[in-house]
TrEMBL record:
<dbReference type="GO" id="GO:0045214">
    <property type="term" value="P:sarcomere organization"/>
</dbReference>
<dbReference type="GO" id="GO:0055008">
    <property type="term" value="P:cardiac muscle tissue morphogenesis"/>
</dbReference>
<dbReference type="InterPro" id="IPR055414">
    <property type="entry name" value="LRR_R13L4/SHOC2-like"/>
</dbReference>
<protein>
    <recommendedName>
        <fullName>Leucine-rich repeat-containing protein 39</fullName>
    </recommendedName>
</protein>
<dbReference type="InterPro" id="IPR032675">
    <property type="entry name" value="LRR_dom_sf"/>
</dbReference>
<keyword id="KW-0963">Cytoplasm</keyword>
<feature type="domain" description="Disease resistance R13L4/SHOC-2-like LRR">
    <location>
        <begin position="107"/>
        <end position="211"/>
    </location>
</feature>
<keyword id="KW-0514">Muscle protein</keyword>
<dbReference type="Pfam" id="PF23598">
    <property type="entry name" value="LRR_14"/>
</dbReference>
<dbReference type="GO" id="GO:0031430">
    <property type="term" value="C:M band"/>
</dbReference>
<dbReference type="InterPro" id="IPR003591">
    <property type="entry name" value="Leu-rich_rpt_typical-subtyp"/>
</dbReference>
<keyword id="KW-0433">Leucine-rich repeat</keyword>
<dbReference type="InterPro" id="IPR001611">
    <property type="entry name" value="Leu-rich_rpt"/>
</dbReference>
<comment type="function">
    <text>Component of the sarcomeric M-band which plays a role in myocyte response to biomechanical stress. May regulate expression of other M-band proteins via an SRF-dependent pathway. Important for normal contractile function in heart.</text>
</comment>
<dbReference type="InterPro" id="IPR050216">
    <property type="entry name" value="LRR_domain-containing"/>
</dbReference>
<dbReference type="GO" id="GO:0060047">
    <property type="term" value="P:heart contraction"/>
</dbReference>
<keyword id="KW-0677">Repeat</keyword>
Amino acid sequence: MTGVTVCCGTVNSIKALWETRIKKSKDELKTEREQRDRRAVGRLTGPWEDRITLAKLKEKVVTEEGRVILRIEKEEWKTLPPALVQLSQIQEWQLHRIGLQKIPRFISSFESLIVLNLSRNSVTEIPKEIGKLTRLRELLLSYNRVSYVPEELGCCENLEKLELAMNEDLDELPTQLSNLKKLYHLDLSMNKFTTIPDCVVNLPSLEWLDMGSNRLESLPEDIHRMEKLHTLWLPRNELEYLPDNISHMQSLNTLVLSKNKLRDIPPLMEDMSNLRFVNFRDNPLTYDVTLPDLKEDDEEEDREMFGREFMHFYIQEARKRGSQTFTLVLNVTLEGASETGSSL
């Protein structure tokens, strides 16, 4: 009986061990199969996700006036997916308020791009690949966080309009931007510039410049080199004087200088016949000058000339008062000399 018992126990142990091994083997096979399936699904997921993303992007593409435009507004797109490269025929990006943090380096693939409008996002960097976009006409990056402009932007030879307003820490531009021979519109307002960069003065086609709300302390003495400039916005800066050569800007018709620290108006500006609108409000000018009240029958156009009329009136009054001061000083000097002679 004892031998039988041992035999049965041994058989049961072997059976249990065998069943355990079989179960373990099945579990291992199951685990391996699941891992293999997950890897296979992973390989499929990438392309499928790209397809889904691409389909979503295609829904944002419209054609207006013969131009293919990607338009996304008020959606969350912090980054742009690589799948976008498959839509390289797009000619215009209109991406507003989407939280975009970075311009992808594959931007260079969009050789047909004419307009790149990424205003009101969180872009911190302009990639050097931007220089590959030789057909680009408009680059709009206002209200972002750009602090540096790459020299490669100077290679965008067809660029006509550049807006970099409100980028907080932006305070300089590369000299290579003077190569933008077709640039006529430049907005650098609400940044930290202390002077107008040399490359801006050297832009041959510049017509419109806004550098309001910066930290400008002076204007370049050769500012008159901007021969085609007709509109110059400089409000809310730290300007204390204007160079005489500003009077040689014959194309200038709009000049805004409100809220600066100007103490005087150059007399030579009196000869700027093309200047149609000028604003000197909120400056600590030396003389307190008030224009005569406008008549009720004066035309509205005349009222718009108020700034220009003020400038002319101020220059005349400054000249008159300066002459009176000189005469007074001269009389005092002569009287002093006479009294000295009498005492001798």
